[in-house]
Structure formats: C-alpha cells, structure tokens
Amino acid sequence: MSIDDTEVSNLKKICDEIFGEVNFITIFIWQRAFAPVNMNKFASRNHDFVLCYAKQTDFLSWYGLPRSQEADTRYSNPDNDPRGPWTSGDLSVGPPVPEKIYEIVTPSGRVVYPPKGYCWRVTKERFAELLADNRIWFGKDGDSVPRLKRFLSEVKSTITPLTVWTHQEVSHSQDAKKELKELFEDQSVMDYPKPVKLMKRILELSTRENDIILDFFSGSATTAHAVMQLNAEDGGNRKFIMVQLPEKTDETSDAYKAGYKNICEIGKERIRRAGEKIVQETGKTDLDIGFKVFKLDSSNIKEWDPDFENLERDLFDLQNNIKEDRTKEDLLYEILLKIGLPLTVPIEEIDCRGKTIYNVAYGSVLICLEDEIDLDLVQEMLKHRSEHMPPKVILKESGFMSDAVKTNALQTLKKHGITDVRSV
C-alpha cells in the first residue's frame, strides 16, 4: 500500500487492526521525486511510503532481490582459491568477550590482537579450523590483520532489500507519467500513475513464477504491466487480477477526450498496449498477454419471489428462469464460479450445427446453454468428455425440445457412466 505522509500514521493503525501488528514487515521509502518544489513553505516532500504486511509472517515466502552484477564484482580471487571468487570481512567484533581475545601470528611472523574494545569474531579453536580450511586472509604480503573469506558460491542468490528505494532503482513519478504517455501516443490519461519498476520491485520480493497477484485498487493497471514485464524477463507465468471501480474521468481531461469515460477503460487499454509493446521488444510471441474482463452484477438466474394472487403467471414465467438481458457467456462464468472453478480455467467452444458446447478443463465439465437441445447435441457432447473421469454435465433446463428428449438425454448420459448431470 502506497501513501504519502498525510495519512501514513492512520493507515498503519488500520492495517495493524486488520492484519495484526505481528504481521507488519516494514515501511519502504520510495523516492517519487528528485527535484525540490520551492513553492512549498516548510519542506519539499519527495517520497511516499510503501507499507508492507503479511497475512501470516510465519508462512510468508520472501525472496529478496536478484543479485546485481555490481554486487558480484565485489568478489575476486587473488589467491586462486579453487572455491572461486570471494570477498573478505572484518574478523573483529564488539563488545569484547574474554575467551575471544587471543594473539594471532601472521604468515610474516607479526603478532596481532583485536583492536581495543573488541574481540575476535570466533574462538581460538574455531580460528584454527578456518585457517586450516584457507578461509583466513592476511593480505597479499601475509602481514595484514586477518580477515574472514566469504565465497560468492556460498552466499544467498538474492540480496536483502534496503528500506529506502531511490528513483535510480525504481524510477520516480515523472518516469511513470512518461511510460504511460508513450503507450497512449503522448496523451496524459492518468494523473498519478506508479512506475513499472516500482511495482516490479515489489513483485520480485514477494512472488514466484506461478503466483497470482491481486491489485484491489488497480488504477491504470501498472501492476498488470509489471507482471507481464517480469514474466517476459524471467520466464514466469504469473497471473494478475485487477479490481477497479468504474470512476468517471473528468470531461475536460485528455482521457475523456480520447474516449476513455472511466478509469477501467484506461486500465484495459493499458494492458492491451503494454502487452503488445513487451512482445515487440522481447520477440517472445508466445508470451501470455491475454486477459478477461468481468464486472460485478446480480445473478443471471431469476429469483423465485411468488405473487400468490398471480401464481399461475409466475409459474409460467419460471419456465424460462434466465434473465432476458444476459448472454450465454454471462451464465457460463456464473456456473464456473458456483461449481468452484477459477475464471481462468481452459474453455473450448465446440460448434455443433450452429449450437455451442463448452468444453471446460479438457472435458472435465461439459456445458450446453442452447435452446432446442436434442439427442444429437448430447451425443456430440459425449465425444469430448475426459478420458480419465466421468465429466460433470450442465444443461439449460428450458432448452430441451421436450420432456421426452430430456428423459432420453439423461438416460443416454447415464448409459455412458455420467451421473453428475445438472440443469440451470
């Protein structure tokens, strides 16, 4: 969660209540600006806060940042150690512990002690083991204060992040506006977008290749852009869920004049354009840049609220229980949610004499929401069932040509071992 210093204290109190104080990780400082604003009376604020919480820190997967070439160049191998490049660290530490204060004789014969107020990091016995394992460095001439060798091959493959993120690392707000204008042909369609590098930094710390990322206040969909970019860079298959209220754009804004009447339209177009740009720049034509759009609405099924004075009319209306303004796709996705399948499940549309059969999850679920369902259509569905287990079959209740066809269809399915048949 990113916020400025006006409300950061209140936001932290709210998050402590929601997630629990024990699940607070840290507050990162993002340098969102680099030039002072002299019109500010007291101070020119140039940073925002990024509050970081876990649902449960005990089970949190935290991955660190990829090691940079700059970090690895600090390692060298002046003594040709077969274990490869290494760097050295101070062998002294404070405060002093009596049993860790002892003399060390360098290869040149010089006797050295830890500095005043310090002791050696290890005991005399442990030092002897490290020396025998060639993990102590006395300098090229063998006369320097001893240092402990740390090998590149033994350090973590990632780096623990600092809490201050400079604009050189994760970009600033002007970079974010520039990124968006480049995608939208120099039009400023969003006032305060976040830079892709900032969101990518958060993803690198907290996600693996197959994770699902939810942004509940997605705005211009920078998070989706960052997910696709990171997938292109590391070969991941992360998925995103962007949630945004359809807030109307100002009628005087560039976004409104360009045809984007609400923020959701900006986000959708940003995902399309960003995906195409990433494919063009990387040449990875197999990169998954597709997405589906859903909106929150009432059920596609009519509610049963009988009027006992007109019961005959209500019963007649109930014969077709699907709302008139809903499509087959609307009903399909409601069914998927109700039977516990994700909205990203593979769906194949099969054409049978102009009618559509939905083959869901490679034949695990077969759905037909057509009118005038006959036995030929049922036989066609059987051709696409899963070879591993009997599928779940879902049919439109009012779609059967007659009650006799419905009875025969159920018997046909039962004959082929399919007993989980439902109607909507």
TrEMBL record:
Gene Ontology terms, MF aspect: DNA binding; N-methyltransferase activity
One biological process term in Gene Ontology: methylation
Keyword annotations of the record: Methyltransferase, Restriction system, S-adenosyl-L-methionine, Transferase
Region (Disordered), start-end ranges: 71-90
A Pfam match: N6_N4_Mtase
Residue stretches making up the DNA methylase N-4/N-6 domain: 2-242
Protein name: Site-specific DNA-methyltransferase
Source organism (scientific name): Geobacillus zalihae
